[in-house]
Amino acid sequence: MKETLEDSIDKIYKKMDGNKYVGLPNIYGQPTMLLLDPEIIEQILIKDFSHFQDRISSHFDTKVNPLQENLFNLQGQMWKTLRSKLSPTFTSGKLKWMFSQISSCTDILIEYLNNK
Questions:
Q1: Are the C-beta atoms of residues 21 and 35 closer than 8 Å to each other?
Q2: What is the pLDDT of residues 55-77, one digit of tens each?
Q3: Are 52 and 36 in contact (CB under 8 A)?
Q4: Which ranges form a coiled coil (predicted)?
Q5: Same domain, 72 and 113
Q6: Number of domains into which the chain is organized
């Protein structure tokens, strides 16, 4: 069975334990940096986010696979529009309110998977 991209990245992630980041030559057709340090990840995804938007230049066909139209793949105005719609859902108060329901659903999923 051929190894998936996700499995390959997972192996690299585990091998590079202790490093802050590692460069990968050709993911999504461009050089990519795999971040391993939580402080660097926070810096890029929160504090310096405006410098790192539109990171992935691959084009996804959302007519074939509509699930590809997500915050990780979208760019520019499409990304901003979707983010503004989703952001109110993930406030700390709403996440605390949803936690018990999410936990319950997770338990059901785990039980289902264990019985397969």
A1: yes
A2: 665 566 778 888 888 887 788 88
A3: no
A4: none
A5: yes
A6: 2
